Amino acid sequence: MSGRASVNPLTGSATYSLTCVGPGGSALSSVSVERIDRFLRWEPPTQNIDGSPLTDLAGYVMYWGRESRRYGSSAVINDPTVTRWEANLPPGTYFFAVTAVDADGNESDYSNEVRRTIP
C-alpha cells in the first residue's frame, strides 16, 4: 500500500491518524507533531509618548530572563524595519520584553511581557 495525505499549516500541536484498509485487514497509525516557533513578533511603534509621530526609530532592544520582569540578558536590534526576533536559547521558560530606541539613543519603557517556553 502507498498513499499521501496533506494538511493545512500547523498553528500549534496536532495529532494525525491514518487508517489503511485492504484485503489483509486494516492498520492504524498516528503521529503527533508540534510546531516549534522560536520567533517573537511585535508591531513597530508609530508615536512618541507625547503622541507626536515617531520619525526617528533606530531599532529595538530585546530583553529576557528566567523570572518575570528580571531580565539578565539582552540583544540589540539595529534595524527599525525588523519586527521579529528568533529566540535561539537553551530549552526552558523565559520572559521577554522589547523596547524601542530612537536615533539619539533614547530607549522606551518595556513592552508588555511575554512568557514563552523554548523546547
Descriptive notes:
The chain has no helices and 8 strands. It has strands at 14-22, 25-33, 39-41, 57-65, 73-77, 84-86, 92-102, 114-118. The strands form 3 sheets. A 4-stranded antiparallel sheet has the order 5-4-7-8, with no helix packed on it. It is elongated. The protein starts with 13 loop residues before the first strand and ends with a strand.
Shape, principal axes of CA atoms: elongated
Sheet of most strands: 4 strands, antiparallel
Distance between the termini: 35 Å
- Total beta strands: 8
Over the alpha carbons, how many angstroms does the gyration radius reach? 22 Å
Low-confidence stretches: none
Helix content: under 10%
Count of helical regions: 0
Structural class: mainly beta
Please state the average pLDDT score: 87
Please indicate the percent range of residues in DSSP E strands (runs of 2 or more).
over 45%
Order of helices and strands: EEEEEEEE
In the sheet with the most strands, the strands line up as: 5-4-7-8
